[in-house]
């Protein structure tokens, strides 16, 4: 059983939705085989009126069941064995890309050998409070210059084409929907993280946010329903630990299996 998990890691089987289905089928098949063999051995020994005796198969069954228990009980086992982790969306800040209640799989090893790129959907630990892990889209990388004018994002003085972004006309008015960064202290918002409100102007140059070294500016695709780098600043590279891969379950069945882009 453990061998199957390690094999999945080696070939990257669970890094695609179709691979996940194959992986589940293999594990379930092996599980059924081992349980069936254990029952068959027990029944044969009873019929032969023999005392229970340990065979290599009984040891194999015991070790396999032990590995299943260990994987089930360990919250981080999926990271150590498979290099992936499942997440459930609890808000609509990433609509239309991800909806509340969507279940996704993220690669928790990708950024060990890669750096985040613009457009990546990253999983990260929120740096200030004891929030659950966040999922947002990378808009700017270190050195990039960003501003928002009339709800349009400009990256390095170029209007950013964002087919994934959406706006909600029913959302409560917020100046940062339309203009960012603020021009002065009188434009700071109470919804900002206090630490960011105190230091934001150290990252502003000529009306643009300059993304600091080793940090990334992230936003939700649902721009008017997302609390993101506009309100708490760029996220440090060492807080980023996953890249969203695909949706493995959704209330909207047509979304199941979709690659996240």
Account of the 3D structure:
By secondary structure, this protein is an alpha+beta fold. The chain has 2 domains: 2-82, no CATH class; 84-255, Umud Fragment, subunit A. It is 30% helix and 21% strand. The protein has 7 helices and 13 strands. The chain has helices at residues 2-11, 17-47, 56-73, 77-82, 110-113, 194-199, 229-232, and strands at 84-88, 103-107, 121-124, 134-140, 145-149, 152-155, 158-159, 179-180, 204-205, 208-210, 215-219, 235-236, 240-249. The strands form 2 sheets. It has a 7-stranded antiparallel beta sheet. Strands 5, 6, 7, 8, 9 and 10 form a 6-stranded antiparallel beta sheet that branches. Helix 2 packs across helix 3 (56-73). The longest helix has 31 residues, at 17-47. The chain is elongated, with a radius of gyration of 24 Å. Mean pLDDT is 84; it is low at 71-77.
